[in-house]
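Hi all, a correction to my earlier message: I attached the wrong file for 4-carboxymuconolactone decarboxylase. Here's the right sequence:
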Amino acid sequence: MNDEQRYQQGMEVRRAVLGDAHVDRSLDRLSPLNEEFQHFISRYAWGEIWTRPGLARHTRSLITISMLIALNREAELRMHLKAAANNGVTREEIKEVLMQSALYCGLPAANSAFHLAEEVFAEQDSEAS
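and the right structure:
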């Protein structure tokens, strides 16, 4: 697969996981500074890793959430908490990942993640109303 094909495949997965609105906002914000980086994300994160057959997207979402908790990456965690539903991840499953993270990432990290998840779920509930 060449870079353009990998990019196209990555964009398909990126849109399926994150949603068109999120991806469109990213594309609208392309600049000379970030354009190559955004293409890199689409080609490699979404076109190489998220398309691998070894794990389902559902599992990849749960793993990604746990890693972002461990790394304390709030903005990325917020994005992946929102996107998890697109991969069939339930709120109960997210809760279990947050509980597990308390043990392995520490109570402060899990506490912050619980607060963030509550915010994300409240936003999703208000949007659904």
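Sorry for the mix-up. The domain at 55-128 is CATH 1.20.1290.10 (AhpD-like).
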